[in-house]
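Weekly puzzle thread! Below is a chain. First person to post its structure in token form gets bragging rights.
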Amino acid sequence: LAYWTSSAVLVVRASAGAVLQRASTAGLVPSPDELLASRWSAAFAAVAGVLVFLSMTSSHTSVDTQLLRSYREIDPRLLAHALSLSGQHNASAELVICIMVVENLQRPPWFRRLERLRGRLRRGKPWTYGVMQVRAIQPLTDRQSIERAIPMLADTRRRPNEDEVAHAFRTVPTMVAYNSNPTFLSQLAMANWTLQDYGLLPVSTPTP
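Winning reply:
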């Protein structure tokens, strides 16, 4: 997984020659509802952004400690559900757990609650939700996000007689399609190393 994730980072950085920016389509004179929604979004971004920045940049908390704390914050029932669905969809259980840990680190439970509140206030606009940060028009629970995310990662489990390099080349496109952000992919690699060192990842076995 570490080799695979590192390969994904290189692919993204090599192929991303420019950062795509979405142009605003809002009118010059917004309606009262739009104005309220925009104020809410601004407040949400400001408050949540500051709190996440402070928690992520604490000089007293190492990366390993943050990742381990993130893992332990996730409801064990969600982890069990994710592992069960991974088996059904032939998805890499290691990959699924690492994604959950990284997304939970970036957007802890209180942050995801704010995201769901924002989604209810700004209906009809797609946002990302849940512990696996799946894009949807309607707010999703953590469990729903897992159920939507894992089919996107289908067939990422290592095959019989497939070496690590071949597995990486086969699964990189799936990961880039899921989330092409280089920072996310780098954190995914760190999560794999940390959780593996502490024996918190499921045993990786090739597909029978």
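Puzzle host: Confirmed. Bonus trivia for everyone else. The chain has a mean pLDDT of 80.
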